[in-house]
Every structure is written in structure tokens, then in C-alpha cells.
Fold this protein.
Amino acid sequence: MILYKGRLYENSRQEELISSLERDLYAPLWRGETLETETVINACDALARRVKEGEYDSVIAPFLETFNISEAQFHEMTELFTKEGLKKKCAVELCDEERAVDGKIIRKRCPLGALLHIAAGNVDALPAYSVVEGLLSGNINVLKLPMGDSGLSVLLLYELIKEEPRLSEYIYVFDVPSTETATLKKLADLCDGVVVWGGDAAVSAARTMAGVDTKIIAWGHKLSFAYACADASDAELYALAKSVCDTNQLLCSSCQGIFLDTDSMEELSAFGRRFFEILRRANRDSRPADYGMRAKNAINLYNERLERHATGTEILNEDGVSVMITEDSELKLSYLYRNVWIKRLPLEKIPSLKKHKSYLQTAAVLTEDKSRRERIAGLLSLTGVVRITSGGNMSRTVCGEAHDGMYPLREYSRIVETEII
């Protein structure tokens, strides 16, 4: 489905509408109009209230089921669109007032102009939220839907325009396959910035597609993990395990594995067995993981067992969850869906994570020793980790927080300085 100037169209009209985009895209800017942040916030807040009141339950319920999202998690996501949440975000990220510099220059934040959002599909409402961030910074937004999009993003943006018709010329949505590189390049050439969500391949494709005069804002795939000491409490480990189950390790902030502050394989094995029992308990307390993914992981674990004579990996699996206790200390993606690796990494070797600096995001630090936690957190921040949390809050949602160590609304803006004559 296509969304163009506030109206929905079938995909068969896509080529025709994209051809009209060059004429229509910048029309509000050339007319001298400015999209006020308050206008966007009020529209989002009104839509959030309707969602909370259950108006869209028939559409949202399947979404929550497919992505294994609890009511509590969905409430956190909805809060991002409320007036309170968005005002807090804008207060942190934006500085809109004009300011005189040395009495001779007026300094003002302005939008980049038009943004092309190339969204990822790991969170179904993410494409819509990416567009909202573009709107908050005053930009016109062109959204390329991810493959397999459920239609939720188009619905949310369409309803947002119904709440505030002035947004109709600031939101365009197209369902262009990633293989249609010529069409995507045409869209990128029309825009001032390309916002790309995805892994290395997606980011590289965007850099190739966009011209040298187009800003690339890349939100690449990240890896997150926990760092534990032997004194970590069962309560903290359970909170971590519950987070693993709640997210199925699908988010950039999800825990893929645990580094233990030890160089002993005996200590590592004991800790791994301890965490495995806690993970089993958390799994019983959670909604079941997708059966198809559990079957796929069963094959992965079978192959790991066949190779463990060479790798030395100890594999614990039961009830659809697994723990892999390995001899290496490499950061890597897990098999996902409640499968956690556990590795040795003594405190003095934490700097070895620096080689992954562009992929690091969240690290939970689990220890009862406050001074040791501070020492570990300091080292992790130097490696490139940008979020340090407790075990249960790795994938928390907080209004106004940075994304991958940066503020999106600032990335979607520029500073214009005008001399006073």
C-alpha cells in the first residue's frame, strides 16, 4: 500500500506517483511553511490516546502475538508517542530558539529538508516511529517499507494524517522492493538525507545508492551482552533471563550472551549451569517462543554437538532454551530465541572488545560489588558500549534516551547562521 499526500493507493500506482514526487516533495518548503514541533506532538498524542482506548485492538493484537510483545512492553512503546514522552524527547534533543552570537549572527536549528527512511522489519512499528522523528525535526519524510511489512506502519501514519491534515505533505510511503535499486536511487537523489536501519549490507547499499551530497544517517545492527561476576545474584540473573525470553533476543539491545569475569573453565561451567536453570525458569514464566524457530535451533544445536569434539563447547538445552559454554572469548550473535552463549572474559581483557566498537550497543553489568561495577562500566564505555544497564533493563524504553549513542533529531537537523546586516 502507498501513502501519498494523505491518500492511500494500490502498489500499481507506485511508478506514476514516484514520478510526481519531484514536483510535490518540497512544495511546503518553497511556500515558506514550517512544520511546528507542537503540531506533530499534538497529533501523535491524540493518536496514542486512541490506541490506549482500544480503538485499534483488532489490528494491534495480531502484531503483539507475532512479535511476542507483552502488554507492558506495548504500553512502553505507546508512551513514546504521547505528549509527555515527545516533549521530553524534544527538550533533550532540540534547541529550536534563535540565538544571537556576538550580537552579529543569528544561529538557528533547521531541518535537513527531506529524508528517505529505509526501514528494517525487526520491529513492526519502527518505520512509523522513524518517520515521527523526522517530523519532529521539521523534515518531509519518504518511507520505504521493509519487506514483509504487515501494514501497521502505513495505518499509523494514515491515521496520524487524519488527526492533523497539515502532515499530508510531509509523509510519503512507498512499497519499493530492495532489489529495485534504480527506483531507490531516484528517491535518494530527491532527498537531503537517507536514514537507513539494518546491517552492514543495508548500510553499504545506501552509501552506494546515495550521492556524495546526501547525508547518510545509519542505524546499523548492533550486538548487546551481559558482563557478570561470580557474585551476581539469582534475582539479577533471573531478570536478565526474563528479558532474553521477552525479546527473544531479536532487538539490538537484547542480550546475546554473557561474559564472565574469570579465566577458569571450571568456574565458567558452574556459572553456565546455574544460569541455565534460571533461564529454564524464566522460560516457563514467559509466553512460548515460536515453534518454527525452536525447531530451527534444534538443528543448529545438533550441529554444534557434532562439532564439540573440535570446539570444546558444552551445550545445555531443554524446554526450548539452551546455554552454550564455549572456550573462546569472541563477541558474536547467538542463535536467538532463548539461546545464550557464556564465555570467559577477565576484567583486564575487556579492552579486547574495542575491535567491535562500531557494533556495540548495550551491556548489562551484574555484580553486587558497587565499586567493581563502576570499574567495569568505565571500561565498557571506553570500548564503544553506549548503554550500560541492569540485567532486566537491557531493552527498556525510556523517553528521551539516545539511540546508539546519538540523538536522532540532531542528526536530522542542521545549524544555519545568518549575519545581521
In short: The chain has a mean pLDDT of 91.
